[in-house]
Automatic annotation (TrEMBL):
Family: Belongs to the short-chain dehydrogenases/reductases (SDR) family.
EC class: oxidoreductase
One GO molecular-function entry: diacetyl reductase ((S)-acetoin forming) (NAD+) activity
Annotated protein name in UniProt: diacetyl reductase [(S)-acetoin forming]
Biological role: Catalyzes the irreversible reduction of 2,3-butanediol to (S)-acetoin in the presence of NADH.
Enzyme Commission number, as recorded: 1.1.1.304
GO terms, biological process: acetoin catabolic process; bile acid metabolic process
Active site per database record: 152 (proton acceptor)
Organism: Terrilactibacillus tamarindi
Length: 257
């Protein structure tokens, strides 16, 4: 019987890379995103690769949507093994200009979404009386906070904190909870971050913020979605059964913790 994984925010970017990796290793995967048009396109592309996938539209910041997502996964595939809280958004703002709307928007998606997804997945694992794996999208920004990324960095520190708490409380059910901490991957997220950072800079040109951050990478190559998917694939496998509560860096050598 195939293992079943849900990957939130997987219509594109790192989430799509994670979904493809898990599919290539025999998982049935529920792709999910708030962007229904891109989600449907990605589902069709992955079905074209003979991957066993379905797509479920949803908003991770809505608790009911997260529980519906798990229900759709179980209705289709019979059970759940892995839940990846990948969806997240960014904001670039000088600290003195951060407004309540930004705080609320980013915490609702990057933090509340992870809490609700964890609750929905954990309740299913407990109902199944099986072990389970919950894997959360953190970041280098969950270990070190960055200028102009104050709210975003705070949300990723919160993800790391909730990962530890959930791991401690859910271990008795043989549910592990871990986080992956990517560095700088050229996805739509970094396209947006670069555009915004350039707006606040007198000398950066488009693309130069990404280059500036990436120039510090010790391994001297850009991060790819597959680099991140390799770590998530490990955390989704039995090889990581004795690891829980960890926020593991995969950044090519940027932050050393
Ligand atoms: N790209 C990087 O360098 C990087 C580094 C560290 C951590 N991360 C984290 O990895 C995750 C994926 O990042 P990415 O670079 O692929 O971003 P991305 O913006 O390319 O993709 C994120 C996806 O999430 C979806 N999404 C946004 N809000 C949603 C919501 N409320 N409900 C459901 N789906 C929603 C978007 O539609 C999009 O498809 C994020 O949590 C991000 O913080 C990214
Ligand atoms: C977007 C992200 O988490 C890091 C800062 O690249």
């Amino acid at each position: 019987m195939s293992k079943v994984a849900v990957v939130t925010g997987s219509a594109g970017g790192l989430g799509r890379g994670i979904a493809e990796k898990l599919c290539s290793n025999g998982f049935s995967v529920v792709l999910h995103d708030i962007n229904e048009e891109l989600l449907n396109k990605t589902v069709e592309e992955l079905k074209g690769k003979n991957f066993d996938v379905i797509g479920v539209k949803g908003d991770v910041s809505i608790r009911e949507d997260q529980f519906n997502l798990v229900k759709e996964a179980v209705d289709k595939f019979g059970h759940l093994d892995v839940f990846v809280n990948n969806a997240g958004i960014d904001a670039v703002t000088p600290f003195l200009l951060i407004k309540e709307d930004e705080l609320n928007r980013l915490f609702r998606i990057n933090v509340n979404g992870v809490v609700f997804g964890t609750q929905a997945a954990a309740e299913q694992f407990i109902k199944q009386k099986t072990k389970g794996k919950i894997i959360n999208a953190c970041s280098i920004a969950g270990h070190e906070s960055y200028a102009m990324l104050g709210t975003y960095s705070a949300t990723k520190h919160a993800v790391r904190s909730f990962t530890q708490t959930a791991a401690k409380e859910l271990a008795k059910h043989q549910i592990t909870v871990n986080a992956y901490c990517p560095g700088i991957a050229k996805t739509k997220m970094w396209d947006r971050i670069d555009q915004e950072m350039v707006k606040y800079s007198d000398d950066l040109k488009p693309g130069e913020a990404f280059e500036k951050f990436s120039s510090e990478i010790a391994l001297q190559r850009y991060q790819t979605p597959e680099d991140v998917a390799n770590l998530v694939d490990f955390l989704a496998s039995e090889a990581s059964d004795y690891i829980t509560g960890q926020a593991i860096l995969t950044d090519g050598g940027l932050v050393y913790r």
